[in-house]
Structure prediction request, 411 residues.
Amino acid sequence: MINFERAGVPQWLIRAFKIQIAFVRIIARIIGLRCTYFSNKTGQFELSTFDRAYSTVILIILIVGFPFALPLVYKGARNVIPSNSVPALIGTFSVIFNFIVIILIYLKEVVNSKKIIKYLNGVSQEIEERFLRDATIRELCDPLFYFLFKFLICEVVFLLTNAFSMISVIKQFGSSFILVGVLSMYPYLVHFTVSTTVFIGSLRLKFFFRLLNKNLMNLAREVQKNNIAEMRQYERISFSCNLSDKLDEYSLYYESISNATKGLLDLYSLQLLLLIINNFIATTFQMFLQYVFTRLIFMGRLEANITLASFSMVVLIIGFLDFTMHGIVGQHVRDEAKRTGLILHKIPTHQMDIRFRRSIETFSLQVLHENPSLSICGFFILDIGLISSVIAGISSYVLILIQFDQAQEAP
Prediction:
């Protein structure tokens, strides 16, 4: 682990990060999505045999138990919306896909537990501490605010809203819907836990890329503000060698953060793909369901429940907001990686020593070939463009479902 005290990070900032991360780790451990722990004795992450066995038991229960719960979900949906079977079928399909997703997530967590330890222990700490010393309070607070926003809105508010929504459903339709509420809520708890784990990794990439680019900009200004032409030969050689050493250090750091990006995607790329697809399906279904409820209320077939409708819309917004935050941070990672190459090309080299020019060329080739980004299973890159595509897709499919529902209602 990084020694934040040695790096000069303020104590209040360290505590704020630790509180949030501890909460996420506790939730992950309770639901069986954490097979590793940090050992204060060795100073390394280690594999917990108990947690791994616990995750395996939950995986087996999910595989064996969820088929028996599907008829209850379908029956409950038919009791709420008796007009036709389309909403019940779509709701059951959504629950099926939800549980397939979390089964695969648990399976990947158990299988990849050793890889996760290797990834966590293999991150370069010495270089990170070096850059943390140069970070301002504003730069240190940036990932904290992102993390705090996601933590409060996308997890705490989501859980509270889901709990109140389930209570509202039970009051209106009876205690038989408790199981349906739990089955609907549990997968999202798993989703957000995995989502937050990946989000922390993405924030780390974004944060250290920005620190790297900040140091590269300082190096470029140092070259520009010095009149190299008036330097004596030994002064120019010494000046060039000092900056060349810095460039070589930054090149190693770029390679480290690039490997960290690949490692994060190797561990969680499939889970991210499943969560994005599930978010797409769940959002589409929720919007369609809101349409069905509204139409039935206007037709007098269903009693209006403003509280339940409001909670459902909040859950819908929070779920998509979580996905949007991943896209924003992914876009920042991609932009900062590209910005590294642009800064390198702006550094003047015509009067510098040959060693400095070679360092620039080597670093530029490295940036050209690696170019880190959050590529999800090689299908697409997690950025703002993906969010706009998903919004367009959801709108299209909601219209198709509405037309299909109206065709079912036609005499």
In short: The radius of gyration is 26 Å. The mean pLDDT is 79. Strands lie at 36-39, 44-47, 375-376, 380-381. The CA atoms of residues 124 and 407 lie 59 Å apart.
